Structure formats: C-alpha cells, structure tokens
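Task card 7
Instruction: Convert sequence to structure tokens.
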Amino acid sequence: MKILKEPTIQDLEERYVAYVSYQGNYIGNPALFAELFGKLFGWGFQNQVMGPDTVMIAAYYDDPEVTPPEELTLDVCMSISKDVKGEGEIKTKNLPGGKYAVIGLELDGPEEYPASWEKIVEWVASHGLEIDISRASYEVYLNNPEEHPKKHHIVDICMAVR
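Output:
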C-alpha cells in the first residue's frame, strides 16, 4: 500500500448515482464486487450514461466490527446525470456529501482494502474526530485495476466524520 494523498478533511458534494445494493458478507469477496459492478456497467453501457466524468464508488453503511456479516449493506454506484432513472435492480439516489476524512492510496490488490480502512480510522481517531455512522463512507475508484500494469487499485477512501 502506497499513500498518494495524505489524509485531509474535505467537504464532499452529494452525488447522484445509479447503484446496485447488496446485503450480506462482502468482506474478502472480490468476485462479488466484480459481479455487482458488471451488472452496473452492463446497464450503464446499454443506456449510454457513462462518460469521461463517470465516477465509480462503493458505499458502505455499517461497521463490520459491530454489524453481523449477513447484515452488512453495500451499494456499488456510478455517478450519472440527474435526468437518468434506474430500472430493475438498478436504482438511483443521491449519495450524501458533507465532512469526510479522505486518503488517496495505491493498493497492490483487493486484499489491501481492509488495511486501508484501518489506516483512515486510525487517522480519524488520532485527530479527535468521530466517525459519522449516519452517512455512508466510500471507496472512490480512480482507475480500472485491469488496465494498470501491475493490477494496482488507485482509490480514495472517504470516511464520514463529524
């Protein structure tokens, strides 16, 4: 894991997204993420809603240290214009903005995601901030790992704080 951007506090704008929800144990399951993003990409391409400014996001609503694995909730999302409506299992909504602790990382692979969250949680605690569990926290994906020469994941981890 390599830090690309040191942690900072940022005021993130809300984003209108199309998303697919999942409830259950997603931890350590890259095949599940591939399946969910595959559904979202398929819909996005079919409906021609993806462009150069499209942002891919995973939104997390629970603390895996507290929530039983079968009750964990995840939305895989893509930013879209406000005039687009979902269909079938593809829904639309606004992801909330607000105050977030954000760190930019380059991960060697999906196995480093848990440690990346631990890193931002430690930073939040060391700076006297509280995690805001009333809002989702995010992974904002800044590349396609399949197109990276070493298959690295370039990501912003965004923890909701107050």
